[in-house]
Amino acid sequence: MAYTAGEAKQIIVGAAALFVKEAGELALADLPVFTSGTGYAEALSSDTDFRNVGFTTNGLELQFQPDFGEVQVDQLLDVAKLYKQGMQVNLRTAFAESTLKNLLVAIAGLESDLKTGTSSAPGITGTGATTTTLDLSSGRLGECPVERGLVAVGPGTGDCTAANGKERIYVAFRALSMDTVTVSAKRDSASTFEVSFRLLPNGTGSYGRIVDRTVGV
Description:
By secondary structure, the protein is mainly β. The protein contains 2 helices and 10 strands, in the order βαβββαββββββ.
């Protein structure tokens, strides 16, 4: 076989669309089925269980951090054996659409913390004014952290034509936002919510799936 340096069509460039399942663990049965000729982002947009977070910045990063233990012996200067003793997976992005709905996801708030309707609270709104309010709650001792399912759809590898589009789908069953989130209002930059999700495995030990799909099939 003749030597080739590589295949340029296997290089992925482009942003992904991120969808959130609002509450609870995501199961495979919750995901829309593949339909020939229909992009998966379109299928998720038609599913009321998922919400598109809209524009993002800094792309999407999926980080795998294994933790290995060491066995040392007297006769070797280096370790004689490594064994896997831990694993951590994180997904990072930044929400460019600074809605309260996105902020709720970024700070791992409860759905009940976000309220939309009319309010007559003194000093905040007038009677009959339509408001959307996010309660910044500290939570309570023993309160369960809020888990959400995540699905991202981005470009895939391979030939990309109108009749044979490629896409890569990232699925996270259990995602918790655990890092610091900054909310800003600045004159010379947009307000974005940088968020890092810690992914946890489900009962079978799976964090999720990555699927390469041909849209036309």
